[in-house]
From TrEMBL:
Protein name as it appears in the record: DUF1349 domain-containing protein
PANTHER family in the cross-refs: REGULATION OF ENOLASE PROTEIN 1 (PTHR35332)
Residue intervals passing through the bilayer: none
InterPro entries, per the entry: ConA-like_dom_sf, DUF1349
Pfam families: DUF1349
Amino acid sequence: MKKVSWSSGTWTHEPVAAVEREDGLHVTAKEGSDAWRITSYGFVHDTEHALLAPFPADTATEVAFRLDLTAQFDQAGVFVRVDDATWTKAGVEQSDGLASLGAVVTRGSSDWSLAPVPSWNGRLVTVRASRSADALTVRARVDDEPWQLVRVAPLAPDAAAFAGPFCCAPTRAGLTVHFTSWQMGDPDTSLHP
């Protein structure tokens, strides 16, 4: 994996602040920021803070951040975007009092999957999205523990996609996410170890 410069990305929606320091990028989300389309809730939210760069076929993008989420639906991780109605966000979200690892895959309408990871609080989380053939494969880990498979979703091989770190704060002001790295490289070689 090779380091991606924070300055090489373009924001989908500007955050309150994005401050680059020696230890990474500190991003403060706007209250009410989120990404969701229709399913169950009936609304479309398209206000996420995603710092995106081109994500060609047969590559992977990887984002690491310190897990410090406290309010309902605080979230951070990797965002992969094709267009307004075709995107995936994957990472950790604070849901009903617990940090939960999951993904939202959107193809017209959003879906949502979560699994609680309360032991990850305060630790370094890394989320990797690999693009290979017709699939987007998302894995995550905490510190240097083994990778966990989060999601396999369709992504057309010829789609022009963009990817990078993201955060949202749907219910409050003041969420600042400390992203420690952003890298790109070769995709994972297989779905299973």
